[in-house]
Design goal:
351 residues; 14 helices; mainly alpha; globular
């Protein structure tokens, strides 16, 4: 019996949505297929009591970034309590890693969580979320550019072996410059051109029939958002330096996490190369937007990178490394979703 037309369209639509994840998982499975699973189990089993300690680097990154983010609120005349802000940071990170197109969902959810748990006005929460994105991406670009330049000869050699010419280093450097320009200069310039008001006008033009009255009613909020954006980026630009430095430190700690994980598995990399590997593959993960946590894509990237760096038995060691990384991610995803699911225990006041 043939499928009804509606069911067929629905099935095709679901297949289309799932296709990126299926391709990513297939890629990961293809790269990891030749791993020696017995040796993988032996490598992981040898870690013993040290396994829970591998959660600490990510905790350190989270605390560093939460401190940096809280300091940046002074630019907006706010000082939210640290514990609720850390809760929002952990919950949005869990959403970003744990659901398809998680970065988009987390960015949309974050202002609501800041308003709910930190007691911030919505327009301030929106600007604070823009500010956090600014710090995360620009600091990523800064660190990626620094380690790319520091490891330039290695990258040129690996690039020639892999693709026949030395374009990889230039690609990474160009990506870093784009990140700094688009999210640094771009966000700062956007604050000067009344970006929120422009968004309101576009929404009114496109969807005015349905939400025109709502847009008109909330026009003052869009105006206050523009005022807060100017205040954040332009009132005291030097005050952005310390949060940016702390966010950059967070990327270095991510690289040290990779360094420690690999050392425990018998692989020795320099701190510069470890930070380069992590910064590059987080960038790859961010490109794989529909796939939760870059599943499959990032995993294959780790294994292929270890192989390109000349690591012996890279597939097996890389598989063990990926399992450590994914186990760590799973813990923090579950922890963040627990925080997200907890009911509100009263509206906190800023101190």
């Amino acid at each position: 019996m043939p499928w009804p037309e509606v069911d067929r369209k629905s099935a095709l639509r679901h297949l289309y949505r799932a296709l990126p994840a299926l391709i990513a998982l297939a890629l990961g499975a293809y790269v990891l297929r030749s791993a020696d699973l017995r040796r993988v189990a032996g490598l992981l089993g040898s870690l013993g009591w040290r396994l829970p300690l591998l959660l600490l680097p990510n905790l350190a990154v989270t605390l560093i970034e939460a401190v940096a983010w809280r300091r940046s609120f002074a630019l907006l005349g706010e000082r939210p309590r640290f514990a609720p802000l850390l809760r929002v940071r952990l919950a949005t990170e869990a959403v970003m890693l744990g659901v398809p197109s998680g970065a988009l969902v987390a960015e949309s959810l974050q202002p609501y969580l800041l308003k709910r748990h930190c007691g911030l006005p919505l327009e301030t929460a929106v600007v604070a979320s823009v500010g956090r994105k600014f710090f995360v991406v620009v600091s990523h670009g800064l660190v990626l550019a620094a380690v790319t330049l520091a490891a330039w000869p290695l990258l040129q050699r690996v690039s020639r072996q892999a693709i026949g010419h030395g374009g990889l280093a230039w690609l990474l450097l160009a990506s870093a410059v784009f990140m700094m320009a688009a999210f640094g200069a771009g966000f700062a310039a956007g604050a000067q051109v009344r970006l929120a008001e422009r968004v309101r006008l576009v929404l009114d033009r496109v969807m005015g029939r349905w939400i025109g009255s709502w847009l008109q009613r909330h026009a003052p909020r869009f105006a206050r958002t523009d005022e807060q954006l100017v205040r954040f980026f332009w009132r005291e630009p030097r005050a952005l330096a310390l949060p940016m430095l702390l966010y950059s430190l967070g990327w270095v700690v991510r690289g040290l996490e990779t360094l420690v994980y690999l050392r425990l598995l018998g692989v020795s990399l320099s701190p510069t190369v470890a930070t380069l590997v992590e910064s590059t593959l987080v960038l790859v993960r961010s490109v794989a937007v529909p796939v939760p946590a870059g599943l499959g894509v990032q995993d294959a990237g780790y294994v292929l990178t270890l192989g390109a760096l000349g690591v012996r038995d890279a597939t097996t060691v890389g598989t063990a490394f990926v399992l450590l990384k994914r186990g760590k991610d799973l813990f923090w995803i579950l922890f963040g979703f627990v925080l997200l699911a907890l009911g509100e225990r009263g509206r906190p006041e800023a101190d």
